[in-house]
Amino acid sequence: MLVACVLVVGGCAGSGPRAADVVATAPTPGRWTVTALGDSVTAGSGCDCAPFVDHYAELTHRATGFRVTADNLGVPGQTSEQLLATLTGDTDTTRRVADSDIVIVTIGANDFVPALDDWASGGCDLACFRTVADSVRTEVGAIAQRIRAVRGGFPTAILVTDYWNVFRDGDVAQELGAGYDQISEQVTRLADTAICDGLVDTGAVCVDLYAPFKGDGTGDPTGLLAADGDHPNAVGHLLIAETLAAEGWKLRA
């Protein structure tokens, strides 16, 4: 049992823990906590259904026999910068991550929304999105490093997903025209590359959601999406959980 004041960052607080001072507790044998961080995909927005982290927890229990608790901290509209700030400055979030054996992250899509608005008004080309992708790469890497640091050396699996589309897709996207469909595909490729590249040397695993939803890019994901064309439906959430579970359960210190 870890008892001493062992801190991720900084010294011991006298009156109460700061986010930087939260420390992980020793794992409980036979039990795992899975915490999901990120945006509206994580939160389960647009779907009156169980979010993917709930399915993943059940799949993990079936595969390992462990008692698995799911903790969903998804925030609709959250950006990568906001998530990093939360992991740095919010004590409650940091404590819950510190006590998590598996952390799943889906973040970055909302970072591109302002550039999409500029593109729609004719004030932005693909170069604008490349600038955002550079920022996402840096922020995602810092998020993974922060999770690893908060865990304080305890074995942890950090699974970071990319996206099938950072904007709308399927039938809904088709109704928005060929230009929208083309730019969303190009930006999604930029975003997915940035997310995975940001995880190099962090010990986190980049989990691809593009291929499960769309194959080589020619697949139609409409049947996996909610009516808004933006979020997964119940089938889509289950697919995400199964894709995450297919990575196995490799916890590393």
From TrEMBL:
GO molecular function terms listed in the Swiss-Prot or TrEMBL record: phosphatidylcholine lysophospholipase activity
Q: SGNH hydrolase-type esterase domain: from which residue to which, for each copy?
A: 36-237
Matches recorded under PANTHER family = SGNH HYDROLASE-TYPE ESTERASE DOMAIN-CONTAINING PROTEIN, THIOESTERASE 1/PROTEASE 1/LYSOPHOSPHOLIPASE L1
Protein name, UniProt field:
Lysophospholipase L1-like esterase
Q: What organism does the record attribute this protein to? A: Cryptosporangium arvum DSM 44712
Reading the lineage from the top rank, the first entry is Bacteria
**The organism's taxonomic lineage, starting at the top:** Bacteria, Bacillati, Actinomycetota, Actinomycetes, Cryptosporangiales
